[in-house]
Amino acid sequence: MLQYHAIGADGSHSISYPRLTELSDGTILATAAYSGDHPPHFPIFASEDGGATWEWRSNLTDQVNGLGFGSQPALAELTFNLGIFKAGTVLASGNSAGANGTNIDLYASTDKGETWKFISNVARGSAPSTQNGNPCIWEPFILPTNNTVGVFYSDQRDPLHGQKLSHQVSTDLKNWGDVVNDVAYPLYTDRPGMTVIDYIPPLKKWILVHEFPGGDSWSGAGYPVYYRLADSPFDFRYAYGYPIVFNGVQPSSSPYVVWTPEGGINGTIVVSDADHQSVFTNRANGQPDQWEKHNSPQPKAYSRALHIFSKENSRLMILGAGNFPGVDPPGTNRPLYASVVEIQDILRNKPG
Q: Taking the model in full, what pTM does it have?
């Protein structure tokens, strides 16, 4: 097991909501929401040795809105040529938010995260507020696939839904298609949020996880985690949503999902949440009654990120940082903190 602190917090700065992506050369880029500076920005860190050591590489700054980047970063590498952008281009987004609105903009780096350039606006909303009826947007997730890039996000702009999950797609990174629903429940006050997606090769399906305040909870989970399976990452609106449950315990809030070929003929789906140090696993292609809960070495945190290494797919990186405001005692400063562990070591821990 490997553990490393990439950056610390202090009395005037906090760090949360970590995100990462692995480049085609094996470099890991990581970032997080880093509050305390004005305007806020996303620090970009790089590891070229599988997470053993990290160095600061750049800051992703807001170049167009005058608001900064204060929350909800997203990273991905373009693995194919798209428009004028070559494979290997690093894509980044986040919520550039303030009194003037919420903005999900796309940035690109052609030098592995050393420098960044604004490319386009994907979506805009009003100033941030979680009150139903306030038409703002949150929590982008970038997915390059099949000569298309999709940006998925939480969307409060629809008068029929307090919040829903939406996406838009582009084939040139400059022009974006219509808003498409991914998860939209008929009860107005339901608020599905925080899309993360991965592919399950043995099943030939995609999995989407989201938190679901308002969803069924048998364990007291305030934001129970649900998942859907679909043939296309752009067709989750046709899929059924299942809660993750193990022995009456449900993951809650800010989920993340990855798939690894380790763990059996079906591989293993791994899900993280904010309320548990453990991870939830499924080795039965997502069958609802086959979830397990296994301890992990990484402390619980708000919106931990998971990653399976492309060339060492038995290894799981868990990237964490601070908890949601109010969870920790005043004065608690949690760093951006990476753990790398073998999947088989996770699975050997007794479920429970």
A: 0.96
